[in-house]
Amino acid sequence: MYALIDANCFYCSVERSFNPALEGKPVIVLSNRDGCVVARSNEAKDLGINMGQPFFQLAELRKQHDIAVFSSNYALYGDTSARLMSLLTHFAEDVEVYSIDEAFLLVEGFECLYPSYQDLGEIIRAKIDQWLRIPVSIGFGPTKTLAKIANRLAKKTPEHNGVCVLDTPEKIDESLKNFPVNEIWGVGRQSARKLECFDIKTADQLRKVPIDWIRQMMTVNGVRLVYELQGHPCKLLEVGQKPKKSFCTEPGFHRVTTDLAMIEDALTAHLSRVCEKLRRQNSLAGCLTVYLKTNRYRKTATGLPDKQHNPSRTIVLPHPTNNVLDMIHYAVGALNEIYAPDYHYQKVGIMLTDLVSADYRETNLFTAGLDEKRLKLSNAVDKLNQRFGSNKLRLASQQHNPEWPMQFQYLSKRCTTRWSEILEAK
DNA sequence: TCTGGGGTCCTAGGACCC
DNA sequence: TCTGGGGTCCTAGGACCC
């Protein structure tokens, strides 16, 4: 049996857990640069606020209702998530951290310690509430996909009280008959539309399709999905961190721009950031991609859609590296090749791929000594920036124009990771 | 005025090899 | 008139996840 623990509107719940005055009020959390809504409390959902809705569209609603608004406080959410995951290891040996607010547990063999899975679920919920004040939903099932479905039912059906156990064929049959196919884990908009054409609308119908047919429709992913719905595990628990295979960063500008100098400036900053991620994982990148994106929503003065340009350029680096000084020349060169002056760009992105472990570093015969020095330099820069704040020490070419950086207007305190922002009790 | 920012996996098709 | 039969590797693009 697998259990899936999933926090209810996690970001909003974290804000609430450190600010009880928000209890019962509509709360929303915004994406980077306060662009879109990425988390909503139930009260906010009841007001009709949608996932991904642009924040500026809520101006009128905010006048009518007292909506608590927050920028994304990743330091706080990340730290709370780490506490949540560590708590879960008290209940099972094998814990897969699936996302910032979700974890799969392999609970087979532990049921003898508890009267039932239902009881185990309730105990976990109570413990998380006691220690973290975060509401969670818990679903149990013989495969990860069924646990996901159980979790969804636990969240949506109040009678379940946050825990749903699918442990008998009867319960599974009953649940799948009414479960919409488009809400299944792994069925996105495209597949749902295709299945709809063949009148497959519920998980139960999907479970009964011929395997060859589903392979044609949804490739091998569809095959795995159908087996999982039938109760045969295809997606196994993945414990331990797997090193990332790529890193990218593509924060948008505050407004669109045609200014190459400013784009170069942003690119330098993004590259520094993404190299830091690389070093944190002890990896080197063999390949670098620079891309530009225009704003697909933008209209010209005449109301016509603005012309779009989304070019990219990939460079194979002469040697795998995680040093910004080794890459900056290639990145800026690539940018200059793809940039065209008559487009309004919304963002410049950089992606590092072909990652290898830094333990396998291939040294260049002619620059080995220099590489060593540069490695020490980047490590020193990382440490200083960790201690004094990010970007305190940076390349001279970065941020000659400080217009583009992120803006977070509604940020709460980073009260679990910064002494200066610790909560005060009055 | 303002519309996020990350990731993974799979497939088809092209280029190349003998 | 008829033009083989295996392979591998790479890339772009699609679909999905949070």
From TrEMBL:
Keywords: DNA damage, DNA repair, SOS mutagenesis, SOS response. GO terms for cellular component: cytosol. One of its GO terms (biological process) is SOS response. One of its GO terms (molecular function) is damaged DNA binding. InterPro entries: DNA/RNA_pol_sf, DNA_pol_Y-fam_lit_finger_sf, DNA_pol_Y-fam_little_finger, DNA_polymerase-Y, DUF4113, Rev_trsase/Diguanyl_cyclase, UmuC. Signal peptide: none annotated. Pfam families: DUF4113 (PF13438), IMS (PF00817), IMS_C (PF11799). Residues 2-188 form the UmuC domain. PROSITE patterns: UMUC (PS50173). Belongs to the DNA polymerase type-Y family. This is Y-family DNA polymerase.
